[in-house]
Write a structure and sequence with these properties.
The chain has 751 residues and is of the alpha/beta class. The protein has three domains: 162 residues, no CATH class; 336 residues, Alkaline Phosphatase, subunit A; 230 residues, Alpha-Beta Barrel (TIM Barrel), CATH 3.20.20. The chain has 31 helices and 20 strands. Strands 12, 13, 14, 15, 16, 17, 18, 19 and 20 form a nine-stranded mixed β-sheet that branches. The chain is globular.
């Protein structure tokens, strides 16, 4: 059996393809035996979805459905990535329909195939009788099951997935003991000191070693020059299990553990207030470092929750960057932040994740055409662009005298997913680490293969950070991937037990409040989202929306505030969305004059500060709630009445600035709430915070916190719920308003 498994592993792609064909055959045979049409309909539906999901997993992550696939198969991530995979989403739906037809009509299809071969090969008829058909059916059921149970087969991988979802309810110390890690050092027992070397970590999206090969030399001249430079060191690095996706890679290079969390997925971090898992962020904090993470969207896969749980000091993403989330924007922001943070005497750790080389074909940035000549594909263009941006970034670090005192690490987050035909003639595919750390300082890679779980030690060693921390790699002798595969359940249990969470209630059994009639008439509980709905349209942020919803009874009005290219405040959700609904075809953001020229949907009047102030001057009982803008001092000085201004803010610094600006309320966003260490309520009360905004999705896991906020007269508003068909504003009022104070609503009937 071991030899058969070895052969299956060597066959690689061919074995995976054979598995898919056998899976389809097996499902088809099973459906052909079902006479009841209703049961066959149900099975065909389930089998078709399962088949297409398995094929999708092969395309995206090169294996059958595993933990990597499951982590990303959630509503938030699927919605966030649809823009990259529109074609694939359509193909998915069409494929499900086709497979359903095949499975539901499998008996007829099998008969047609048999009749066809009987006509072409008449001698087959003598092998066809009742007993032989029974034999064939048994063979076609048993043989596929056997093959699919081999290494890397569908059934084998499904069993491995089940192991990653299992969580032993043992304590953290018991789980350490099971892995032979009794002397593991938790964050509170850390001892660390620094050599005052700054740390800069750049995680490159899907930028694997094949792109540094001779085949793609024209795309990556700068990275190849670093690889060949005597001042830099290039290390080959292997992917390890549990780190083959972006958030998994991040967790591994911060903690040294594979990112297995059972059925919790990354949601485990949402209600975490203390980590027993030691990350380099803890070590660096103990050594006096200030840490910052920059990415395009930290909400994907719960990255922001993870970073807060691991005590990274500051997180910057689209919340502050707005529409500027391409890699060019990230590198520009990185320059600003490093210049600012370097003014402090403390050493800093700057972590950055790029995104423009994301599969399937990169995220094209037209602005880079000034620097990069046309390439064969958008992906190749963006690979060359990122290489160029890295060179420019390093030059900037040298210019501001930060290069000599900074240890820099550049590595891919994972191998490129999807179609791998572009990697013919590139040699073995792998990851790598490029660093300017002195070779003598990096002990991690001596006489061993480097894996992603080795990165914490490598990063700390290269920066000469003295510490007593230990990582999983310190306890592994031999093949690390085999160790991980053989200890998935133990590692999962350790990860889960390593984060102390508030007592959670996974589900609230809906029970209608007895206060429904009072709640629904209380105008202080409902915020007209983006000005409110008008003519069944949302997010207009228009004058007509304000008028209509004031007439309907709203007195609290949220507007999304953006800055024009010439620094004027206007009402728009995101610039790319505004361009669509304003029928604007050119580059954004636009100037103030250009913004005011364009009606929303060719119907509705856009709002600038003059229009906003005029409206609130005429409606003296109306209160403005802002979103997107994070500059309370500057904005409040331009608004007509600070006593009627509530601003949702996205950093603690902005909250303090809002308090100093004497606005009606500096509303704490969910991100800021998550970032508060220790007793959240105590800190909010201390600063006289009266309002908090959160997602209704975290109500169930934060009941005790919500009760404490309510007890201290802190109003909790839940974000707009227009993305849920079965969870509208009325649902929130009936079943959840006892836990929160109010809701952002597109529409509401106050009668």
């Amino acid at each position: 059996m071991e030899k058969i498994n070895h052969i299956a592993s060597l066959l690689g792609k061919q074995f995976l393809l054979a598995n898919i064909l056998l899976l389809i055959l097996w499902f088809g045979v099973i459906c052909s035996l079902i006479k009841n049409r209703v049961l066959r309909f149900v099975l065909a539906s389930v089998f078709s979805i399962f088949s297409v999901l398995q094929i999708s997993s092969l395309y995206f992550v090169r294996t059958f459905i595993g933990y990597n696939f499951i982590v990303h198969f959630n509503k938030r991530d699927v919605q966030g990535m649809l823009g990259l995979f529109t074609y694939e989403a359509i193909l998915f739906i069409v494929s499900v329909i086709c497979f359903f037809f095949i499975y539901f009509h499998s008996k007829l299809i099998i008969e047609i195939i048999v009749n066809f071969f009987n006509k072409k090969l008449p001698f087959l008829l003598k092998f066809q009788n009742k007993s032989s058909f029974t034999f064939y059916k048994i063979v076609f059921i048993i043989l596929p099951l056997f093959v699919m149970s081999l290494n890397n087969g569908v059934i084998n991988d499904s069993y491995a997935l089940l192991k990653t979802l299992r969580v032993d309810e043992s304590s953290f110390n018991e789980n350490l003991s099971k892995l032979g890690m009794e002397d593991y050092v938790t964050p509170e027992n850390l001892v660390a000191s620094s050599a005052n070397k700054n740390i800069i970590v750049i995680s490159l999206e899907s930028f694997e070693s094949a792109f540094l090969s001779d085949k793609y030399a024209h795309l990556t001249p700068y990275l190849r020059s670093l690889r060949d430079s005597s001042e830099w060191t290039y290390y080959n690095m292997k992917e390890n299990e549990g780190s083959k996706w972006t958030s998994g890679s991040l967790y591994s290079y911060l903690t040294g553990f594979p990112a297995y969390f059972g059925t919790y997925h990354n949601e485990i971090f949402q209600s975490s207030y203390h980590s027993k898992i030691t990350g380099i962020s803890h070590v660096l904090k103990k050594a006096g470092y200030k840490s910052l993470h920059l990415s395009s969207d930290a909400t994907i896969s719960g990255t922001d929750d993870m970073l807060y749980a691991l005590e990274v000091d500051n997180i910057i993403d689209k919340t502050q960057l707005k529409d500027k989330i391409q890699d060019k924007d990230l590198f520009d922001k990185a320059k600003q932040e490093i210049l600012e943070i370097s003014k402090d005497k403390k050493p800093f750790a700057f972590f950055m994740a790029t995104m423009s080389t994301h599969f399937p074909n990169g995220v094209y940035d037209k602005r880079m055409e000034k620097f990069i000549s046309p390439k064969n594909s958008d992906l190749e263009f963006m690979l060359a662009s990122v290489d160029y941006m890295l060179k420019e970034f390093m030059s900037y670090l040298k210019e501001i005298n930060q290069l000599s005192n900074s240890v820099i690490y550049i590595f891919p987050d994972h191998l490129k997913m999807g179609d791998d035909r572009m990697f013919s003639e590139t040699g073995d595919r792998s990851l790598y680490v490029l660093t300017n750390a002195k070779k003598n300082d990096v002990k991690t890679v001596e006489n061993r293969h480097l894996y992603q779980i080795d990165l914490p030690k490598l990063i700390l060693d290269g920066a000469k950070v003295n510490h007593n921390a230990k990582f999983l790699t310190d306890y592994i002798n031999g093949d690390k991937n085999e160790f991980i595969k053989n200890h998935i359940t133990e590692i999962t249990s350790l990860n889960v037990s390593g984060f102390s969470r508030l007592k959670t209630q996974p589900y609230i059994i809906p029970k209608e409040t007895i206060h429904y009639n009072n709640y629904k008439k209380d105008k202080s509980r409902f915020i007209a989202h983006a000005g409110g709905m008008i003519d069944n349209l949302i997010y207009t942020n228009s004058l007509e929306a304000l008028d209509k919803n004031y007439e309907n009874g709203f007195r609290l009005f949220e507007l999304d505030i953006q800055k024009t290219s010439d620094g004027k405040y206007v009402a728009a959700h995101y610039w790319n969305e505004w361009a669509t609904i304003a029928n604007y075809q050119k580059e954004t953001p636009v100037s103030h004059n250009e913004f005011m020229k364009h009606k929303i949907y060719n119907l509705y009047t856009p709002l600038d500060m003059d229009a906003i102030n005029n409206w609130f001057k005429e409606h003296k009982d109306a209160i403005l709630i802002t979103d997107k803008v994070n500059e309370p001092k500057q904005f409040s000085e331009l608004f007509i009445d600070k006593n009627r201004l509530i601003m949702e803010l996205f950093t603690w610094e902005a909250i303090l600035e809002g308090i100093d600006a004497n606005i009606k309320s500096a509303m704490v966003s969910q991100r800021v709430l998550n970032s508060i260490r220790g007793n959240k309520v105590e800190k909010l009360v201390k600063h006289n915070i009266t309002d908090v905004a959160i997602s209704r999705n975290i109500i169930a896991s934060n009941i005790e916190l919500l009760k404490a906020l309510k007890k201290n007269d802190i109003r909790v508003f839940v974000y707009n719920v227009n993305d849920r068909i079965d969870r509208d504003e009325d649902y929130v009022v009936k079943y959840e308003m006892d836990y929160v104070f109010g809701v952002y609503a597109d529409k509401w009937d106050f009668q």
